[in-house]
Amino acid sequence: MKWSLAFGLVFAVVLTGCTTSAGSYSSAGLAPIPGSITYNGQPRTKLMKSPVGSSFPHTFTDQWGRQVEEIYIIRPDRSLLIAERHYRPVFSLDDD
Fold this sequence. Notes:
By secondary structure, this protein is α+β, with helices and mostly antiparallel strands. The protein has one domain. 19% of the residues lie in helices and 25% in strands. It has one helix spanning 2-19; strands at residues 55-61, 67-74, 80-88. The chain has a three-stranded antiparallel sheet with strand order 1-2-3, with no helix packed on it. The longest helix is centred in the N-terminal third of the chain and has 18 residues, at 2-19. The chain starts with a helix and ends in an 8-residue tail after the last strand.
């Protein structure tokens, strides 16, 4: 009985820790790289018509010729957060 109570308590604490930060954008995000919208700082124009928390993609070619896709999230202060970055393969093995 003590073990199941202890397990339940630990599980509840872990679950609470996972759910409390679900909607928070306080993370610094990924560091900008050349080609990122935020590479030289935040853009001067603010995205006033877009809702806070919305996201949008940006695709560019980095300095090594790789295709990069970044996903940005609009923070409450209208600054941009790089939430995800994906590098697309240069070639595919199943090309004909």
